[in-house]
Amino acid sequence: MWRGQHRDLGIATAADFFTDRNLQALAAVWEAAGRSVERSAMRFAVTAIVNRASRRYQWNPKRPTNVLSGTLYIASLTYEFNVFSLLRRKFAAVAKLNQALVDAPGACTVNQSSATELTGVEDRSVDYVFTDPPFGANIYYSDASFLWEAWLDAFTATDQEAVVSTSLSIEHGRKTLQDYEKLMASSFSEIARILKPGAWASVMFHNSDDAVWSSLERAIESADLSLESAIAFDKSQPSFKGIKQITDQERVSSFDLVLHLRTVTSKSARRTEKKVVAPIEETTLVAAIGELLATAPPRRRTTPYIHSFVMRLLLERGGPLTGWSYRDVEALLESHFINNAGTWATQSRDTEEMA
């Protein structure tokens, strides 16, 4: 998990993410929480503030900017937030939550296990699965969880984390796209095992790399799950990478897709239902995009949305995804449509909007 930035800042342990003063304050409240009759609630509150209490909190003279989620990034100018001020606010929030809790009918079971081995869940016993797995190399969740895991002394098994992380050493969880595909395939196999016959699963996913998409598609097929449809999911709050796309024109996807899968009753049925489709012609994609641009609002005429649209089209029609990365879709748009301040338009619509 350690990056060059951490080495340059002299960070070698979890303790180095904190100033001496805040580290001592956190240690004191952590010890006190361990002696409390409300130990779990107290430690829940403490772990909830550790990122803000760390050197990751950024300084902004105009307003608090919090920490960047999904990373272990430390800004060049940081702010030492008072631990006890943070804790008072968090205790108030936890107390408010406790008051809002009500008894509800039914039962809820929480299991902690690897997605590749859902121990305790019987075969063909689940009506529906929703999963939001890691998107290739987009976010290293072991990094995102590192600081509170350090206080809990329970760390993510990075060797089993389903991410593409070729820049890391093997010791720290290095994985190729092939490693990622194997872990995803094992996870989808478990989903297929626990779903009732004909039941459905929904998978939230996106990536700008066509190779990652192809890897996901193979993992789904290997588990004898059938991709029935896909819909776009518009995230109202962009992620860190989504903001990078807006501010730095970084080629990343801001719109996720929700893939709807269902179990297939037998392997012979799976082979029968498997679509054999030739690559979709570029002219077909251009025509479909043109129809979209003719009526879509501005937010759905951006490159991120249109990339999601193309992926959905290819997935639903069974066409190969290879050759349709974010950059490939962008090049297609540049060749056939007009870019007007970040949104795409057909020649006729652009003329209408300029009039």
TrEMBL record:
GO terms of biological process kind: methylation
Gene3D superfamilies: Vaccinia Virus protein VP39 (3.40.50.150)
GO function term, MF aspect, one: nucleic acid binding
InterPro entries found in the cross-reference section: DNA_methylase_N6_adenine_CS, SAM-dependent_MTases_sf
Annotated keywords: Methyltransferase, Transferase
Protein name as annotated: DNA methylase
Lineage of the organism: Bacteria, Bacillati, Actinomycetota, Actinomycetes, Mycobacteriales
